[in-house]
Write a structure and sequence with these properties.
With 178 residues, this protein is mainly beta. It has one helix at 23-33; strands spanning 7-8, 17-21, 41-50, 53-63, 78-82, 87-91, 95-99, 106-115, 120-126, 129-142, 147-157, 160-168.
Length: 178
């Protein structure tokens, strides 16, 4: 925050841009700033109206550790992750994969199930059974990394369910057929 408002330096750039925020982006940012963060990374949706400004319609995640620029989202529809136990899930147009520390990477072809205002869900047929992945819009905190996300994530395989946080990637999958 400076005299001209919020400023941001985009990944790969060296100069700062003045930020314009729509209401959903402003609300998410103010919620994150309430925890006392001053320097952090953001991932969001918007446009670049001119060389000196960046416009954000919404945010996906905030991270004080700075991994966002290195964490490519091209070709990814959603990612989810959780702790205790650690797990990660990635949904792309072709595959949905689940990673856990003590197991081999598991996945199968992506099938979109729902895309509504309150949930996005996918499934994949894996060698160990049906993997169901759900994302719901809600503020979610990763207390181990101090990151904040705008989606809750849940992955279910058989009788086992993992819960954590998630974010959209740069790829949109087609809506499922009714």
């Amino acid at each position: 925050m400076g005299k001209d408002g919020y400023g941001v330096t985009l990944c790969g750039e060296t100069t700062q841009r003045i930020v314009q925020l729509d209401a959903p982006a402003r609300a998410a940012l103010h919620g994150f700033l309430a925890n006392g963060a001053h320097e952090f990374r953001v991932d969001g949706w918007g446009d670049l109206p001119d060389p000196g400004h960046a416009h954000f319609a919404s945010f996906e995640r905030f991270d004080v550790e700075g991994r966002i620029c290195e964490d490519g989202v091209d070709g990814v529809a959603f990612r989810g992750r959780g702790t205790e136990p650690f797990w990660n899930v990635e949904v792309t147009p072709t595959d949905t994969t689940l990673e856990r520390p003590d197991s081999a990477k598991l996945g199968g072809p992506t099938r979109a199930l729902a895309d509504t205002h309150d949930m996005v869900s996918y499934e994949a047929a894996t060698p160990e059974g049906r993997l169901l992945v759900r994302f719901s819009p809600a503020i979610c905190h990763d207390n181990m990394s101090e990151a904040q996300f705008t989606w809750r994530a849940e992955a279910t395989l058989g009788t086992r369910t993992w819960r954590g946080c998630g974010y959209r990637g740069g790829m949109r999958l087609p809506h499922p057929a009714p």
